[in-house]
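User: Let's play a game. I give you a shape written as tokens, and you guess the letters that built it. Ready? Here's round one.
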């Protein structure tokens, strides 16, 4: 992706970073991949239209975040990586929006996670937050959406589970590219520590936003139920 071979130890550290994040934040990621996420995204009882709308908004927010980064990235390889995500997220948005009737973005401010991401200034922070932490979140939420639509496949609305399965596979590619970018850009322990802190906080913000939405619905977030 970056066009550079890189130090093999950097790729090992990148793989270890992913494993550590998935282990350390297993509970947070489990909530994001649970049926309770569906309630939070729908604002109540899970409903196809509300979930599709939330998904389209999420793809749109990601597209806007990466467009901003691509516009001011001094690192040409990082800029190319961000531009690729802009194109991917725009396509994701279009594919989800096609399932809705005349969907347009709500035009409001970004949620906590994207507000945080848009404040990141270095290539390492942006790759860690936008291309590692955020995809780890999306892999969970997409998996739950696949399950939801598999259970509700109808002749009048076919292919929605397949849609989110495709989005999930492409998001895994973004995560791999993000880890590769970190492997070729993190040169010191301080770089890796900065990357880990940003990725961790990104996951935590996504979890906390979902947890707050659930609490507003009267759902017990601490119940430990993640099915």
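Assistant: Ready! My guess for every position:
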């Amino acid at each position: 992706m970056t066009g550079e071979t890189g130090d093999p130890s950097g790729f090992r550290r990148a793989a270890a970073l992913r494993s550590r994040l998935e282990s350390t934040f297993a509970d947070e990621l489990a909530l994001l991949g649970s049926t309770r996420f569906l309630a939070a995204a729908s604002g109540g009882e899970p409903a196809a239209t509300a979930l599709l709308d939330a998904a389209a908004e999420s793809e749109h927010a990601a597209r806007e975040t990466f467009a901003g980064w691509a516009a001011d990235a001094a690192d040409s390889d990082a800029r190319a990586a961000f531009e690729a995500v802009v194109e991917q997220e725009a396509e994701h948005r279009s594919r989800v929006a096609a399932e809705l009737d005349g969907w347009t973005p709500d035009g409001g401010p970004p949620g906590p996670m994207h507000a945080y991401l848009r404040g990141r200034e270095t290539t390492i922070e942006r790759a860690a937050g936008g291309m590692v932490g955020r995809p780890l979140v999306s892999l969970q939420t997409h998996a739950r959406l696949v399950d939801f639509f598999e259970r509700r496949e109808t002749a009048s609305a076919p292919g929605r589970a397949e849609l989110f399965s495709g989005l999930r596979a492409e998001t895994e590619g973004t995560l791999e590219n993000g880890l590769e970018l970190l492997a070729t850009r993190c040169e010191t322990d301080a770089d890796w520590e900065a990357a880990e802190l940003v990725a961790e906080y990104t996951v935590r913000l996504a979890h906390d936003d979902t947890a707050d939405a659930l609490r507003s619905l009267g759902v017990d977030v601490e119940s430990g139920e993640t099915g």
